[in-house]
Amino acid sequence: MSKPSKILLYYDGTREAKTALHHVADLAHALDAHTDVLAVVDTTSTIAASGWYLSDLACACIQDATMITLREALDHMEGNGLPARGHMACGDVVDSISTHAGLLNSDILVVGHRPRSGFARWWNRGLAHDDLMARCNGRLVVTIPCN
């Protein structure tokens, strides 16, 4: 088995994602691996939260905020001497991560882990990283809990 050489980090600016970002920098140094950072405009959640109506201005503001979040992660990587490429997608987060993992031929996928709320446990909603592992067969999925 060859050494992993490509890491894909999903970054959304949350506390969990920031913790994952710090660990990815260490991992990329240790493996001498290339890192791609993916930020996703989660259109499903955004549209549902807006009552199924989202103006063009609101969409532009959300995309701008996502780009700022992506830039934050790229600046962190560059500040640690690690060149990284940034990617932005629109749509479902898990779909976007699995699609980009295939397009970029990533060996390792890294996501921050957020414990499910009481409502999510009650609703019996599956864990996103379980779905991600099922879709990204053959890739290592690493979930980083918040410190």
From TrEMBL:
* UniProt source species: Paraburkholderia solisilvae
The protein here is known as UspA domain-containing protein
Where, if anywhere, are coiled coils annotated? Answer: none
Q: What Pfam families does the entry give?
A: Usp
Which InterPro entries does the entry link to? Rossmann-like_a/b/a_fold (IPR014729), UspA (IPR006016)
Residue limits of the UspA domain? 6-122
